[in-house]
Specification:
The protein contains seven helices and no strands. The protein is mostly helical.
């Protein structure tokens, strides 16, 4: 499908149009991959708010984004000669940090990240409380066990929500750090 779209764009808009289409596709894939990289990072690692740790995380994200874009098997467009050239130009320099900042400062990206975090939280809660209903005991014993499990579940959910709040505070600190390092322009959304 992408191959046909690329041929259509080239026939209608020429070489420059084809280049623009490839760039647009690379940037869309970069956003998708960065969402995956960051949501996995937030889900696995506890946030360390020190600047050096944040810079280290950014470096790892940049490396992962670069390698994932180059190895992207979902995209025929990226496999084109020009797609690889665009990736090398964007990611083979400090421009990758500007690209990361541009992507993560958009509200659309933030909303997707929040949705991903909510799905991870829901999945976590579901895994913990997958046990079936309490069947042992009668009357008051069953009600007490139900109430105990309900309180336990609420406490775990509250704890997880607090953990994710801290992780999102760290995410905003990452954006601040990118700005301090001069990679975010003042017009970011």
């Amino acid at each position: 499908m992408l191959e046909r779209q690329l041929l259509y764009v080239r026939s209608k808009y020429g070489f420059v149009g084809e280049q623009y289409y490839i760039l647009h596709h690379v940037l869309d894939r970069a956003e998708q991959l960065l969402l995956s990289i960051i949501s996995n990072h937030l889900g696995v690692y506890e946030p360390i708010f020190e600047k050096e740790a944040i810079v280290d995380a950014l470096y790892k994200w940049a490396e992962l984004l670069y390698s994932e874009l180059l190895m992207d098997t979902k995209s025929i467009v990226i496999k084109k000669q020009y797609g690889n050239a665009i990736i090398h130009q964007l990611c083979g320099s400090k421009l990758i940090y500007e690209l990361i900042c541009d992507i993560i400062t958009h509200e659309k990206f933030y909303n997707k990240l929040v949705n991903t975090a909510e799905m991870k939280l829901a999945s976590y809660v579901h895994r913990i409380f997958r046990r079936g209903p309490v069947v042992a005991g009668i009357g008051d014993e069953v009600r007490r066990e139900y109430e105990r499990r309900k309180r336990e579940k609420e406490q775990i959910i509250e704890g997880e929500i607090e953990r994710w709040k801290t992780k999102f505070e760290w995410f905003f600190k990452v954006i601040d750090t990118l700005s301090e390092l001069g990679y975010c322009n003042s017009n970011a959304n």
